[in-house]
Design goal:
There is one protein chain. It is built from ten helices and twelve strands. It is an alpha/beta fold. The chain folds into two domains: 6-100 and 307-325, NAD(P)-binding Rossmann-like Domain (Rossmann fold, 3-Layer(aba) Sandwich); 102-298, NAD(P)-binding Rossmann-like Domain (Rossmann fold, 3-Layer(aba) Sandwich), CATH 3.40.50. The strands form two sheets. The protein has a seven-stranded parallel beta sheet. A five-stranded parallel beta sheet has the order 2-1-3-4-5. α1 runs parallel beside α10 (309-325) and α3 (102-117) crosses α6. The longest helix has 17 residues, at 309-325. The protein is elongated.
Length: 340
């Protein structure tokens, strides 16, 4: 068994306790922690020694990192990084943070579904105007989550956790995913969360057949990676397939949903309402017409924000470090062929 040291570079502002936890995985790990915003913040000699890199977006040119074997990204979606030259480095392994953000994003999805169903945005708007509607029973007619049919577009770590959280609501879960043969979740799963075995959905659809699924849904949650095949995939036809009293929640990546089509669907009451957390351009421009749509909830890409995120991220990294040391397959390995 080799005892050679492994040089690990962390560019995130982790606490001393979190760095100590990483170091405790093995005495072979020589961990350097430098908060960096760009590659130039790291001395060339450190880049030259680095074998394992933990970072959000600080990616060096490949010639600076001759020994680099593995990049663990701090985020789940890494579409911003896939075309960086270092990602073309032969035999480089890249892994994502899939699973570490699933808990808070699933809670966000439930928050939005409940808020949309209860017409909370209208309540807030009326509160700001000190307005008590005469026909409040009609204005605040409630679409209950309990007993409803929820469509989950994408059945990765986030929507598997959504499915688990929906169990007490006795919903019917419909799910669509790319690989129908892979029912189990082989990614990183915090204990007691998600749907590891693929037990919580009632019916499973191929992504290509989501319009058939959408017709039956009261709520739809989109949680897909941005790839060449998903860019612009949800548009006029998909919204037209939904019920007129259905609600749509997007917490995937900007660029998957056609926002022009969404605006038209909301303006024409093709669907009852929607919630967005992601946009093709961020920050969302002040001139965007989305801001003024009354039946749309807008949040500034914060569905994955949590005070516990860094601890969960370190837990995942430590798990993967242990697997790296034992030459076991790493969780959440990025596959350039499918784009995530």
């Amino acid at each position: 068994m080799t005892t050679e040291p492994i040089q690990v570079l962390v560019t995130m502002p982790f606490s001393e306790q979190q760095i100590d936890k990483i170091k405790a995985v093995s005495p072979r790990l020589k961990v350097t922690a430098i908060r960096a915003h760009q590659p130039g913040d790291i001395p060339d000699e450190i880049w030259g020694q680095t074998e394992v890199l933990y970072t959000d977006s600080v990616l060096p040119d490949p010639e600076l990192v001759p020994k680099l074997k593995w990049i663990q990204f701090h985020y789940t979606g890494i579409d911003y990084a896939v075309e960086k030259p270092v990602m073309e480095k032969p035999d480089l392994i890249a892994t994502t943070m899939s699973g570490a953000n699933a808990l808070q994003m699933a809670e966000y999805a439930l928050t939005m579904m409940l808020a949309l169903g209860a017409n909370v945005k209208t309540m807030i708007d009326n509160q700001a105007k000190a307005f008590w509607p005469d026909k409040r029973w009609e204005v605040y007619k409630h679409q209950e989550l309990r007993g409803s049919t929820v469509g989950l577009v994408g059945y990765g770590s986030i929507n598997r956790e959504v499915a688990r959280l929906l169990l007490p609501f006795q919903t019917t879960i419909l799910a669509a995913k790319r690989d129908l043969k892979q029912l189990k979740d082989d990614g990183y799963i915090p204990e007691g969360t998600g749907d590891p075995e693929g037990d919580y959905f009632t019916r499973l659809y191929p992504i290509e057949a989501i319009k058939s699924m959408l017709r039956d849904c009261d709520f739809v949650v989109l949680a897909l990676p941005l790839t060449a095949s998903t860019r612009g995939m949800f548009g006029t036809e998909e919204f037209a397939a939904m019920k007129s009293n259905a609600y749509f929640v997007d917490l995937s990546r900007g660029g998957i949903v056609n926002h022009t089509a969404l605006k038209e669907a909301l303006d024409k009451k093709v669907i009852s309402g929607a919630a967005l957390d992601v946009y093709p351009e961020e920050p969302l421009p002040a001139a965007s017409p989305l801001w003024k749509i009354p039946n749309l909830l807008i949040s500034p890409h914060v569905g994955g924000v949590s005070p516990h995120y860094n601890n969960r991220a370190v837990d995942l990294f430590c798990t993967n470090l242990g697997r790296f040391l034992e030459n076991h397959p790493l969780f959440n390995r990025f596959d350039p062929e499918i784009g995530y």
